Every structure is written in C-alpha cells, then in structure tokens.
C-alpha cells in the first residue's frame, strides 16, 4: 500500500462506526484521486527525464546544422583581422574603392538582408504608406516556423509594416508587403529580381520577400550595390536605423526594437543597416556608416556565433579608425 492510501486508511480507523460506513466510499474515491495524481506526476517526471537525457545525447552526437559558407569551406580563408565572418567587404560609397575584402564574390543565402530589397521595391513603387494591410494566414512562416508578434488579423498601415520589416525584421510584415503589391506575391518577387538586374546585381536571386528561404542568395559585392541604392531613400535610412518603435495593435501598444544593437552605440554613425539570420546563411549584417571621415558600406556574411557579426564590425571599425596601417585588402579566394 502506498503512503497516501495508508494515510487515508489510518484516518478512517479513528472515525466512529457509523461515520466510517458513511464516509468509506468518498474516502476511497479521494484515495484513488491521490494515487492517480501521484502516478501522473511520476510519469511526467520520467518523461521529462527521458526528454532531457535525449536532448543531451542529441546535442553531443548530432552536429549543429552547417551554413553554406561552412559547407563550401569559406571559413578556412584567413584574414589579418581574424574575422568570424567568412565573407566581408568594406567599400567607399562615393568612389567604390574596396578597402577590405574577403570572399566578396561568394554567392550565399542572405537571410533577412532580403528585406532591404523588399523595402526598396515598395518605396519605388510609391504605394500609399497609409493604406491598411492585414496579416493573414498566408503570411505565417511555414518555411522555418518562426514566431511573430503580429497575429493573424493584425491591421497596420503599409508604412508601419515597412518600418517593422526593416527595423525589427518582422517576417509577416515583409510578406504582407509583397502580397499587397500589384499582381500579388509572384509579381513582387519578379520585381525584386528585375531590380537586381537593373542594378547590376548579377549574382543575386530572390525567391520570396522575407529571407526565410535559403534560395534568396547574393554576394557581398552585389549587396554593397543594394545598400548604396537603398541609402538614396530617406525613409529607408530612417526606418532601418530606428532604435525602437511602438505600434498600436487593437487596444494594445507593442514595442519593437532594432535587431542591430550598433544603432544605439554612441561610437557609430549609421545611415542605413539590415541584419539577417537563418542557419543556412549564418549571421549577416550590412551597413552604411560614416567612419574615419568617409562614407563607407560594410557587408558581413556567414558569421559564426550570435554576436560575432557585431564583433567583426567593431574590428573593422577599429582597423579603419587606425588608418589601416600595414594591412592590405584581402585577396578573395571564394567563388
């Protein structure tokens, strides 16, 4: 007999005979409920233990999913700054002079850097920023099953969707922008690829407007061209560099923050930026910034580690501020 049944049984022995007879049935029911709860809790603990042990085993046995850059061996390319990004490029915005390069022609997935082209297409189409768009089930991510703070049914003006897509990298907002383009999503993606050709981005291909698909691919050289084009639009500069922004969703105010912590740094003067991440792409970052008295475009792709793209940007900044003494641009070895 378990301790719970013994406890209940001893309690019944102290009752008068008539009370015991009257109370035996509910006591037995109570005992059964206690026993069921105990068994359930023991089962739950056992399941949690098995799951935890399995997770540890899987973490030890199964390697982390590799990025395309890792698969291609791009991380074996050495550079004087020991960057964690397998692809890097620093270019003078005015003269197109390349100050630093590492595998700049490698074509890789670009994750949410995609949203920079998405925003450029919406802006140049001159669609009304006041038109209210609705998040639908079509905007829910079935590619990576990523979460979103914009629930199905959320209604926001196009301008707010654009702001959230650039600043907070909101996937549902970016997809909604594409869906509400004349001709729908298919026409929008066609416009993205057409714009890439117009800009001379010959290494670039887009499959959708969010960056969740690894089929969205580009090179550092192409992305530098995109940053330069996007920087020409004041609204893209403003929206992409907002430290935070609140939007009214129904009766609630939801606060969003910039995915790039450098925009809050007093040591950076950033004119435009976009971050990106999916496992196939690694951590990515593109920026336009005023550094060392020059307007520069910086591209970092396939960085290994959650904070490594920020660390790489800081290394490049320090190198540039010191005058790049004794360091020449790295000769690209990637394809």
TrEMBL record:
<dbReference type="InterPro" id="IPR012338">
    <property type="entry name" value="Beta-lactam/transpept-like"/>
</dbReference>
<protein>
    <submittedName>
        <fullName>D-alanyl-D-alanine endopeptidase</fullName>
        <ecNumber>3.4.21.-</ecNumber>
    </submittedName>
</protein>
<dbReference type="GO" id="GO:0006508">
    <property type="term" value="P:proteolysis"/>
</dbReference>
<feature type="active site" description="Proton acceptor">
    <location>
        <position position="115"/>
    </location>
</feature>
<feature type="active site" description="Acyl-ester intermediate">
    <location>
        <position position="112"/>
    </location>
</feature>
<feature type="binding site">
    <location>
        <position position="274"/>
    </location>
    <ligand>
        <name>substrate</name>
    </ligand>
</feature>
<dbReference type="InterPro" id="IPR018044">
    <property type="entry name" value="Peptidase_S11"/>
</dbReference>
<keyword id="KW-0133">Cell shape</keyword>
<feature type="domain" description="Peptidase S11 D-alanyl-D-alanine carboxypeptidase A N-terminal">
    <location>
        <begin position="78"/>
        <end position="303"/>
    </location>
</feature>
<dbReference type="InterPro" id="IPR001967">
    <property type="entry name" value="Peptidase_S11_N"/>
</dbReference>
<dbReference type="GO" id="GO:0071555">
    <property type="term" value="P:cell wall organization"/>
</dbReference>
<dbReference type="Pfam" id="PF00768">
    <property type="entry name" value="Peptidase_S11"/>
</dbReference>
<feature type="active site">
    <location>
        <position position="169"/>
    </location>
</feature>
<dbReference type="GO" id="GO:0009252">
    <property type="term" value="P:peptidoglycan biosynthetic process"/>
</dbReference>
<dbReference type="GO" id="GO:0009002">
    <property type="term" value="F:serine-type D-Ala-D-Ala carboxypeptidase activity"/>
</dbReference>
<comment type="similarity">
    <text>Belongs to the peptidase S11 family.</text>
</comment>
<keyword id="KW-0378">Hydrolase</keyword>
<dbReference type="GO" id="GO:0008360">
    <property type="term" value="P:regulation of cell shape"/>
</dbReference>
<keyword id="KW-0961">Cell wall biogenesis/degradation</keyword>
<keyword id="KW-0732">Signal</keyword>
<keyword id="KW-0573">Peptidoglycan synthesis</keyword>
């Amino acid at each position: 007999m378990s301790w719970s049944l013994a406890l209940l049984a001893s309690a019944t022995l102290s009752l008068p005979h008539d009370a015991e007879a009257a109370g035996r049935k509910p006591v037995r029911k109570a005992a059964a409920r206690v026993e069921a709860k105990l068994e359930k809790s023991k089962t739950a603990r056992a399941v949690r233990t098995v799951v935890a042990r399995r997770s540890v085993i899987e973490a030890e046995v199964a390697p982390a999913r590799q990025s395309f850059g890792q698969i291609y061996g791009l991380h074996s390319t050495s550079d004087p700054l020991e960057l964690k990004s397998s692809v890097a490029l620093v270019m003078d915005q005015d003269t197109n002079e390349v100050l630093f390069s590492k595998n700049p022609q490698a074509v890789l997935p670009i994750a949410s850097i995609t949203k920079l082209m998405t925003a450029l297409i919406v802006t140049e189409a001159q669609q009304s920023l006041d038109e209210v768009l609705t998040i639908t089930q079509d905007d829910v991510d079935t590619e990576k099953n990523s979460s979103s703070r914009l629930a199905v049914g959320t209604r926001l003006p196009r301008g707010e969707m654009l702001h959230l897509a650039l600043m907070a990298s909101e996937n549902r907002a970016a997809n909604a922008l594409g869906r509400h383009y004349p001709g729908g999503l298919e026409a929008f993606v066609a416009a993205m690829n057409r714009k890439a050709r117009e800009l001379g981005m010959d290494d670039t291909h887009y499959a959708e407007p969010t960056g969740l698909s690894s089929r969205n691919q580009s090179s550092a050289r192409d992305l530098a061209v995109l940053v330069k084009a996007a920087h020409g639009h004041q609204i893209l500069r403003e929206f992409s560099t907002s430290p935070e922004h609140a939007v009214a969703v129904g009766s609630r105010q939801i606060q969003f923050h910039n995915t790039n912590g450098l925009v809050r740094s007093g040591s950076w003067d950033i004119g435009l930026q976009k971050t990106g991440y999916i496992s196939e792409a690694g951590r990515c970052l593109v920026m336009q910034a005023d550094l060392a008295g020059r307007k520069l475009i910086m591209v970092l792709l396939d960085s290994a580690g959650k904070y490594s793209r920020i660390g790489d940007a800081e290394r490049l900044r320090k190198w540039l501020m010191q005058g790049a003494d004794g360091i020449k641009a790295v000769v690209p070895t990637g394809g």
